[in-house]
Each structure stands twice: as structure tokens, then as C-alpha cells.
Design a protein that fits this description.
12 helices; 0% strand; globular
Length: 277
């Protein structure tokens, strides 16, 4: 992968990671559609993508630093009694929502890894992601609950939805937002919680994958290129988060529809092009 290709993938990843359109799906499909010459089956491709996610994690932590600071100080009892209790409740919800993805990720790591080099399959799952968004918008639970009303049962359901995003083409943010909508919370609240639970999953994946960039036989300069690309991805992700939080707040009745139509058209179009083009 050239330096220019790495930066292009970084911008793509940062722009699509938080949007409900699957950054992994785009990272697998677009290079194949555009004939960019990126070897998606190389042993350095997945660790490279994961390192880009590190930039996204840093962007999310910086954007929601007040939430994380409240959780951190509350866990150690440094705030008022009510704030300490609320911080511990939110921390527990994040842990509950994270557990399903951790279990499924470890259990199916080898099977999932093989999908990263299969653009046609990723394109099909992009279309399925659009269908999920479309029906999730229409089957959303009644009511407009706020984030503060989230229960452990809600967190577990959202965490189970997050497992589907281990497959390239299914959006992590899209799946978790749909899970939240089905539990009756607003788009803004669902997105807020989705972005919070993204951080431990991304950080955990980084801890597992980044050492492979350092110790496996990768091309010279791969790690330095990936590090610069991670910074670019992080900046792009921060801007995307800023936009999306305002977008979901302003369009609570139909916010997922444009992303659903896009994924269906792009996914089916890409699958057809890769198969018969």
C-alpha cells in the first residue's frame, strides 16, 4: 500500500466509521471497485485498518471527554453521591454492551478475518446493512426515551446488535443505533451510547492487532505510514462525530433513511460490478 493510498483509506475510514454505513465494508469494497491495487488478503491489511481505528478511538474520547471524565471520577468516588452512582451505572451499561462483541469476536476471529479479502461478500452485507437501517427506522420502539433511562437489558440488546458489525459491510454504529431505537430511545441517545461503547471495542482490537504490525514481516515503513494515517483518520472521525450528533438531534423521525438507501444502492451496485463488471 502506497503512502497516498494509506491516506485515502484513512480519510475514508474516519468519515465512515461513525456514519452507519460500515467503514470496514467500504475499506474492503472501494479498493476493489476502483482497482487501487491494495492487497486486502495481506497479513498487514487488518492490523493497518485496526490502527486507523485507534485514531477514531482517540477522536471519540476527545469528543466525549466530559462523559469519560465523569465516569472515571465517579468510579473513584470523587463526585457527589448521586453523580458517583450515575457514573457507576453508566460504566456498568458500557461493560454489559461490550461483553457480547468480545465473546463473539474471540470465538469467530479466524472466520471473520477471511471475509476481509472478499469484496463481493462485503458489498452484499453493505446492502443488508441498508435493509437493517430501513426496517430499524420503521420498527423502532414507541416513545422517545433519553440516555439516562437506559437499563442493563437495553445495554445487552444493543451489545448483541454490535456483534453483527464484526462482519465487513455491517455497520457497528448502524447496528447499535438500530438496537437502541428498538428499545425506544431517541436517535441522539442511541448514537451517544453507540459512540461511547465503540471506544472499549476499538481499543481492545488495537491492543490485539497493532503488535502484529511491529513483529510480523511487514514492508518497511508500514508502521510509520499507518501511524500518520491514524492521525488523519482521527481528525476526520472527530468532524464526523460533531456533524452526526447534531444531525441525529435535528432529524429524530427519519435520520437513518438516507444511509439506508445509500447502502442498498451502493452495496448492490458494487456487488454487481465486482461480479459481472
Amino acid at each position: 500500500m502506497t503512502y497516498l493510498q494509506a491516506l485515502a483509506v484513512a480519510i475514508l475510514q474516519g468519515a465512515t466509521e461513525l456514519f452507519p454505513v460500515s467503514s470496514l465494508g467500504h475499506a474492503v469494497v472501494l479498493p476493489a471497485v476502483l482497482h487501487l491495487g491494495i492487497d486486502q488478503r495481506s497479513h498487514e491489511f487488518l492490523p493497518f485498518i485496526v490502527l486507523l481505528h485507534t485514531g477514531t478511538a482517540v477522536a471519540l474520547i476527545s469528543f466525549f471527554w466530559r462523559d469519560w471524565w465523569a465516569i472515571f471520577t465517579g468510579l473513584f468516588g470523587l463526585r457527589s453521591a448521586h453523580e458517583n452512582s450515575e457514573a457507576r451505572r453508566v460504566f456498568l451499561l458500557i461493560v454489559i454492551a461490550t461483553i457480547p462483541a468480545v465473546i463473539v469476536g474471540f470465538a469467530l476471529e479466524k472466520a471473520i478475518r477471511g471475509l476481509f479479502g472478499t469484496p463481493v461478500i462485503a458489498a452484499v452485507f453493505l446492502a443488508l446493512n441498508g435493509i437493517m437501517l430501513f426496517f430499524g427506522e420503521r420498527l423502532r420502539g414507541r416513545g422517545h426515551r433519553a440516555l439516562a433511562t437506559l437499563t442493563p437489558a437495553d445495554a445487552l440488546v444493543i451489545g448483541c446488535f454490535q456483534c453483527g458489525a464484526l462482519i465487513p459491510g455491517l455497520s457497528r454504529s448502524g447496528a447499535t443505533i438500530v438496537g437502541g431505537l428498538l428499545r425506544g430511545i431517541t436517535h441522539e441517545a442511541a448514537a451517544h451510547f453507540s459512540f461511547l461503547i465503540a471506544t472499549p471495542v476499538i481499543v481492545g482490537a488495537t491492543v490485539l492487532e497493532v503488535p502484529k504490525l511491529l513483529h510480523e514481516s511487514v514492508a518497511p515503513g508500514t508502521f510509520s505510514t499507518a501511524a500518520v494515517a491514524a492521525v488523519v483518520a482521527g481528525i476526520t472521525a472527530w468532524i464526523s462525530t460533531w456533524f452526526l450528533m447534531r444531525y441525529f438531534r435535528a432529524n429524530d423521525q427519519w435520520a437513518l433513511n438516507p444511509f439506508a438507501y445509500y447502502c442498498i444502492v451502493f452495496g448492490l451496485g458494487s456487488a454487481a460490478w465486482l461480479t459481472w463488471g
